[in-house]
Amino acid sequence: MSILLKGGVVVSVHGRRQVDVRINGEKIVEVGTNLKAKDSVEEDVSGCFLLPGFIDAHTHLELNNGKGSMGTADNFYTGSKAAVAKGTTAVIDMATPSKGSSLKECLATWNHLASGNSSCDYTYHMSIIEWNPSIKKEIREMLEAGITSFKMYMAYDNLRTTDGEIFEAMREIQKYQGMLGIHCENGDMVNEMIAKFVAEGKLSPHYHPLTRPDSVEAEAVERYLMIADLADLPVNIVHLSTKRSLEAVKRARAHNQKVYVETCPQYLVLDDHLYDEPDFEGAKYVCSPPLRSISDQNALWEGVINGQVNTISTDHCSFDFDGQKTIGKDDFSKIPNGMPGVETRPELIYTYGVTTGKISLERMVGLLSEDIAKQFALYPQKGVIQVGSDADIVVWDPQTVGVISATTQLQNVDYTPYDGMQTKGSAKSVYLRGQKVAEQGQVIVENQGKFIFREIVTN
Ligand code: URP
Ligand code: ZN
Ligand code: ZN
User: Which PANTHER family did the record assign (predicted)?
Assistant: First the structure.
C-alpha cells in the first residue's frame, strides 16, 4: 500500500519546501509538488512540518554498569515506545559487555534484549571496557557485524580504561574509520572528591556536582583530544556539559582536529540549583556529568547556535526515585547515576530552542536527526526525507501546547526531571519505515523496530 502525505512542509538542514511525499512499503518513493493520489491513501498533513524521524544517539535503554545488569526503570520495550510516540524513530543504545566477555557476546545480548521488543529502529555503540588482543581483533568483527561506533569511559572504575588503552583502541578504530565516543571525566579526581566529601560527612545530593566540577570534565576532554590527535582519529565527545570543555574543543579544532560534540537537553534546560531540592528530590537530577551553572548553560546554547555543538541526544538512563535513587538516601555517592529523557527531547528542543528563536527548525533537524545520521553512518537511509530513504517521518504540529508530566509520560519511571515544564509543538503522527506507528503521542503499533546494519562508505 502506498501513502501520500499531502500539504506539509518538508524540512532538512538546507531549508524547507512545501511538497507532497509518497511512501511505498518502507521507503520514500516520490517527493514533489501537487502529487496525484493515484492508488495511494491520502493523508492531509497541511499545517504541519514533515521532519525526518529523530535519532537519539545516546541511550541506555538497557544498562550494564560493569557490575552486571543494573535494572534501569526502562528497557527496550518501554523506552522505545516512549521514544517513537514523540518522534524518535531510531536509537543508538550503549551496548556494554561485562568484564571478561567478548564484544560478540555483548552484541548477542543486546540483540536478544532489543529484538522483537523495540518500537523504534536501533543499533548500538559497542563499549570497550578493557583492552586485550582478543578485544582488539573484535573491532574489525564489529564493523563486519554492522557496528561502526564504539564507546569508552575515562571515569567509573568498573568501566574505565587507561589512556594507553584508549590510544591503542583509537589506532585500531582508525584503521576502519570507525567512530569513538568517550565519557570524559577524570575518574581519579572524581574518586578523590567523593572520598573527601564522604569523610567529611557531606552526604546529600548537594555534593554530587561538587565532586565533578567543570575542571574534572574539561581536563578529560583536553586529554582525550590530545590522545585522539596522536592517533589521528576524528572523535565524538558525549554529553559535553561545560564552557571549559567547549574551549578545549575549540583549541583542538584550531589545530585542525575533527571533533564532534554531543550535548543533552538536561544541560540546556536544567541547572545545578536543582540538587538542593528538599526531601532528597535533588537525587532525581544525579547524573554524570552533573547539571551545571547557568553560565555553562548559556555557553552550550551559544555552541548549539554557532555550530560548535553538533548533536543533541539524551543519555536516557532511567531510575525510579522510589527504590532506586533512594538507595543513596544517606550517601549521595550511592545514588544511581542517570536521568530519563528519550521521550521529551523533541518537544524540549522545539520549545526552548526553536520557539524562543535561538535556533531554526532546520538546525533542530540537523541536531536531532540529519547530522546524527551523517556522523554515525546512518545517512541517507535515515535522517532525511528524500527518494530512496527509509520513510521515517514525523508529522510535526507546531500549534499544540502541552505540559510534561510524570503521570502522563510513557517512560516507565516514576518521575521526569522536566515535570511541569510547558511545551509547544509535538508529533501529531510518526511513520517508521512507512508504517504509521504513533498518533497524538500514543503508540498505535508496537515492536516494529529493526536492527540497523551500518556500513562505513569510503570514497
Ligand atoms: O549519569 C549518567 N549519565 N549515566 C549514564 C551513564 C553515562 O555516564 O553515560
Ligand atoms: Zn557517560
Ligand atoms: Zn551515557
Answer: COLLAPSIN RESPONSE MEDIATOR PROTEIN, HYDRANTOINASE/DIHYDROPYRIMIDINASE FAMILY MEMBER
